[in-house]
Amino acid sequence: IQKGIVNERESLFPTFLYWSLTLLLFVGSLSIRLFDIQDLPLDFHPTRQLFSALKARGIYYQTKTDVPEWQREMAIRQWKMQATIEPEIVEHLAAFSYRIFGKEDIAIPRVYSILFWEIGGIFLFFTAKRLYDADGALLSLSFYLFLPYGIFASRSFQPDPLMVAWISAFLWAISLWMEKPTWARALLAGLFGGAAIFVKTVALFLVGGG
Are 192 and 177 contacting, i.e. CB atoms less than 8 angstroms apart? Predict the structure, then answer.
């Protein structure tokens, strides 16, 4: 076995059971996060979620023609009044989805946040398999997916879940580079790390630490 690479056969579990447990972790964590997703976003930083919701609503209403003009102008004004803290990536994604579904539904961007968090879990899992071992990857994934704070945070309409996904992808790319340092892998890590910082600048500390 090459240094830094761990085969799933090193697990204490048979291969089929190992991957079944891995899939169960993802399905179980996804089910928990989707429970009552249509509820008002008052479970985690409601002010911050309202901030993104107002921005997404304004972006959506600026191209919406089947509403009264005063309502459209008010939605755009509420959007423009909000401070620009980070790039409006998730807000534009939400507005784009509103147009596809033909309605404004804050559950849609919350589902995106959940999917971003789950994708981050995939990268974390394979990173842990490379840096530690197969069972350590299961333990890391379990902690990441079922930590109560993470469950609430990953259901919120804000850029943090997308940032976490990019950070996780960056760490995975770094683990590839550790295995075989090449310019291509260094560039991949740089792109993922840069994307995390672009989404939210506080990622700088985590990317820099990595």
Answer: no
CA 22 vs CA 5, 16, 124, 142: distances in Å: 18, 10, 12, 9
Listing DSSP states for 11-69 in one string gives: SSS-HHHHHHHHHHHHHHHHHHHHTTTTS-S-SS-HHHHHHHHHHHHHHHHTT--SS-H
Phi, psi of 151 (to 5 degrees): -65, -45
Cα 139 to Cα 33, 52, 59: the distances in Å are 19, 33, 41
Q: Tokens 């959506």, residue?
A: 60
| Confidence bin at 210 (pLDDT 50/70/90) | confident
24-29: long-range contacts (C-beta < 8 A, 24 or more apart)?
25/138, 25/141, 25/142, 25/145, 25/146, 26/118, 26/121, 26/122, 26/145, 28/145, 28/146, 29/118, 29/121, 29/145, 29/146, 29/151
Single-letter amino acid, residue 6? V
- Predicted structure pTM score: 0.91
